[in-house]
Design brief:
heterodimer; A: 259 residues; five-stranded mixed beta sheet; 3 helices; B: 315 residues; Cytochrome Bc1 Complex, Chain D, domain 2; 2 domains; two-stranded antiparallel ribbon; 12 helices
């Protein structure tokens, strides 16, 4: 008799468990065919130096051909954002929350992986060097835009969109620091860049990960601005920041697509 | 208790623990709103993305008073922003940071921050959420890096569980820290002064208070505009003819902004001495003497001091 009651309780509990478990099943993936419709694209930034585009390295002495300064880079970081691809039918696909920090000291950051691109062929791309004005005035952010990356001015709010630092015997202080930013008015450095793929096409498919190669040339910081003897520090938005950023951003170009 | 009974009880309990973890049976914490009287305009910061909760405010308060946020664990936000002084400094002219480093300006009070369009004497900080970045990383103040702060917070079980409770995330990031500090700072309001009680019809000004109010409206209200007692504009109120601190011009680089500072609120003003961006005046009497007979001329002096010179003896 007693035993009977307990086994009933047992039964009841098992039954309840079963009910609860089934009722809590997440209802994702409601079947259908699972042919993938999306693929991944990689965007690689390669750093080359000077007019002859020789390979660039951090932490070694290099000569800036225009100013004659000897420079040893310790930091080179910049934001790339709002990446978009133009399909051969003329429509654009834009990446969501598209903010990326390229850091020359972290090899993995030189290759930006862009997932969930709809399959198809693309002929052009657009990207922004810097961080759009909205994110400069919207308070605390996360990920690439986190203040833990050391790319946000603490006393004059806004992103340091490009940071180049290093040592130079030609600088009166022995070092240089270009902190380039500014998102409003005449000193806005945010630059939207467009490039076609020069006849090549970007083929997005589930089976391959094409890689777009862009080349950036850090010697361009001194394309117009004088050398580090005259301007070794830029710490806020202004004419010097604007010029250095413009020259560096203008110097970035499409090289090829690795299918 | 019978063994079988025990087992089935355990079974039952297990059911409730393991079931439906994703569908949140537990009541979400009630979000709070900022209370403010109807004669005050809507705040610019509305806590839309950063939902104000009791636990969030408590966590922000804990961070505000915790010196581990500084490089040598000696200074907290509360070191320079003391509640007894409406969260202004402890009667210091200039703020003192780690290693007794002397700051450059007087610590302003903290209240009604949700109404501020920008922060600092020169308005250099554009959003309440990233306001803490300045004191946390300034080498004259708390002198710490955000990366280190996040390491320290993530090493603390107490913080981890509190942050988990408020933000439902296992790992603490800087946005969560800023959100929590903002919940605390942003929910400190000042709307219970005698002025407010008069506005609300609960009490009346005395006759001498009324004369002061009339004078105030004539001479001060154009900048220290009621009911917040500031219009948040940048002005030169005649402290100097040569500027040691360029003020607003440091941010805008405009010569016409040299010597301009953000108009401070005059709420709680009896508690926030010493006064002005460099704490040069110890008493309100000195401030009044300044406005009546100490105004110094310069290119950027506010025109109101020519058009409407302050005389404190109306008939």
């Amino acid at each position: 008799m007693k035993k009977n009651i307990f086994s009933k309780i047992m039964l009841l509990s098992i039954a309840t468990t079963a009910i609860l478990f089934t009722s809590c099943k997440k209802d994702d993936d409601t079947g259908g065919d699972n042919t993938p419709t999306k693929g991944t694209v990689k965007l690689e930034f390669e750093h080359k130096w000077g007019m002859n585009l020789v390979p660039f390295s951090m932490g070694v002495d290099i000569k800036q051909p225009k100013t004659g300064d000897t420079l040893k880079f310790t930091t080179l970081k910049y934001y790339v954002s709002n990446i978009k691809f133009k399909k051969s039918d003329g429509t654009w696909w834009s990446q969501d929350e598209s903010y990326h920090l390229v850091d020359a000291s972290i090899p993995s950051s030189l290759i930006i992986s862009i997932a969930d691109v709809p399959i198809g062929t693309y002929t052009e791309m657009q990207y922004t060097m810097g961080v759009d004005s909205i994110r400069n005035v919207s308070g605390a952010q996360t990920g690439a835009l986190s203040t833990a990356n050391g790319m946000f001015w603490n006393w004059n709010s806004g992103y340091i969109m490009t940071k180049a630092e290093g040592m130079s015997p030609n600088s009166p202080s022995g070092d240089y620091a270009l902190h380039l930013g500014g998102f409003q008015g005449e000193f806005n450095v945010v630059t939207v860049k467009s490039t076609d793929f020069g006849g090549e096409v970007l083929n997005v498919s589930p089976s391959a990960t094409p890689q777009i190669h862009l080349v950036a040339n850090p010697a361009k910081f001194w394309h117009t601005n004088p050398g580090v003897k005259t301007i070794s520090k830029i710490h806020m938005p202004g004419a010097n920041a604007k010029q250095a950023a413009k020259d560096f951003y203008d110097g970035i170009f499409f090289d090829h697509i690795h299918p | 208790m019978n063994k079988t009974l025990k087992i089935s009880l355990i079974f039952f309990v297990l059911i409730f623990i393991s079931s439906c973890q994703t569908s949140e049976i537990e009541q979400p914490e009630q979000t709070l709103g900022l209370f403010y009287p109807d004669y005050v305009s809507k705040p610019v910061y509305g806590f839309e993305k950063n939902k104000l909760t009791h636990d969030g405010i408590q966590l922000g308060r804990m961070l505000f008073y915790d010196p581990i946020l500084s490089s040598d664990s000696t200074i907290s936000c509360g070191s320079c922003h003391a509640q007894a002084h409406a969260f202004a400094d402890h009667n210091m002219k200039l703020s003192i940071g780690v290693n007794n480093r002397m700051g450059l300006r007087n610590s302003p009070p903290i209240f009604n921050l949700a109404w501020h369009p920008n922060f600092m004497w020169d308005g250099g900080v554009n959003h309440i959420e990233i306001m803490p970045l300045a004191p946390l990383t300034n080498h004259l103040e708390m002198n710490e890096s955000i990366v280190n702060i996040l390491l320290k917070l993530n090493r603390s079980q107490t913080y981890k569980s509190k942050f988990l409770q408020v933000f439902k995330k296992d790992s603490i990031d800087d946005q969560m820290m800023y959100y929590a500090l903002t919940q605390f700072m942003g929910s400190i309001t000042s709307f219970e002064s005698k002025y407010d009680h008069v506005k609300q019809g609960k009490v009346a000004f005395s006759s001498s208070e009324n004369r002061g109010y009339t004078l105030f409206k004539t001479h001060c209200n154009s900048c220290h505009q009621e009911p917040l007692f500031t219009n948040f504009s940048f002005r030169n109120n005649g402290l100097d003819s040569v500027f040691k601190d360029l003020g607003r011009a440091l941010i805008t680089l405009n010569h016409s902004d040299e010597g301009l500072f953000k108009v401070p609120s005059l709420r709680n003003v009896a508690l926030t001495y010493p006064y002005m961006h460099d704490g040069r005046f110890r008493t309100l009497e000195e401030v009044i003497n300044h406005y009546t007979s100490g105004i110094k001329h310069s290119k950027t002096l506010d025109t109101s001091f020519f058009e409407n010179p302050i005389q404190l003896n109306p008939n």
